[in-house]
Amino acid sequence: MKRTVLTLVSAFLLASPVVAQADPGSCTATPGSGSASNAGTATCPAHAGDFWFRVAVDCYDAYPSGLRFIGVGYGPWKWAGGDTTTTSSVPCNGAVPGSGVAFNGRLEVR
Fold it and tell me: What is the pTM of this model?
């Protein structure tokens, strides 16, 4: 009887799903503070956790001169618990090709 109970308990523990820990801190977002780019990107390593993430970035237009805020750009929601590195990205598009500028890339998590 003891052996049967021990066998059943062992089988249950081995078959129980492992709860993934969410670790958004292992993810990165660009462009960082004080930097600029033409797009925003958030990247999470494989098995970062059981959560969804996306990039958000402040977009500006440099055409015809100076910088004019045109809105916040959002990348698609991606799941961070996969077996490979996952990326969410979004371009900032200005009035003419190449005039979009991205600042303040940040990770949003749900």
Answer: 0.79
Q: For the chain, what's the residue count?
A: 110
**Structure confidence by residue, pLDDT tens digits, 8-45:** 444 444 444 444 567 899 999 999 999 999 999 999 99
Question: Distance between CA atoms of 77 and 54, rounded to whole angstroms?
Answer: 5
Residue 64 preceded by cis peptide, ω within 30: yes
Q: Tell me the β-bridge partners of 74.
A: 56
Please give the angle made by the CA atoms of 18, 51 and 45, to the nearest 5 degrees. 85
Separation of alpha carbons 81 and 54, rounded Å: 13
State the Cα–Cα distance between residues 13 and 8, nearest whole angstrom: 9
Rounded Cα distance, 84 and 81, in Å: 8
For residues 32 and 2, is the Cβ–Cβ distance under 8 A? no
pLDDT at 39: 98
Please, what is the Cα angle at 77 between 91 and 81, to 5 degrees? 125
